[in-house]
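User:
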Amino acid sequence: MSALFAFMHHAAAFALVSALAIELVLLRTELTLSNARILQKADMALGISAGLLLAVGLIRVVYFEKGAAYYFHNAAFIGKLSLFVIVALLSIYPTVVFLSWSKPLREGRLPGAPAAQLRAIRRVVHLELVGVVLILLCAALMARGIGQFG
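Assistant: Predicted structure:
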């Protein structure tokens, strides 16, 4: 069972990174109806994968591996969880913008998305990816027992 949850955790993480990569690529191109719709779907996939990643990760911490007491006494784990929350908070802005596009897209119109707004979203996605890289660093440290205290 532990291996199944480890697989689900990794699959959700790869899905999250893939969704961010799709967003980044599409935000570098001209905004079209098709791209705007794909951005909305990628952002939805990002949210779903983040939710699954968190849920499965917490299940692993509580019921499998070394147990919650071990992980919550590890600075790398706390850093990893904190970075996850920061990335989640960063993702709110793009999500709100992409959701605001729903009505124009349903009507077959391109959403009003000023270039400055798209640049800001692109910066946020870059920051989210940096956060994910730092999460991976924390995961590697944690897996080696680095950061254990108390």
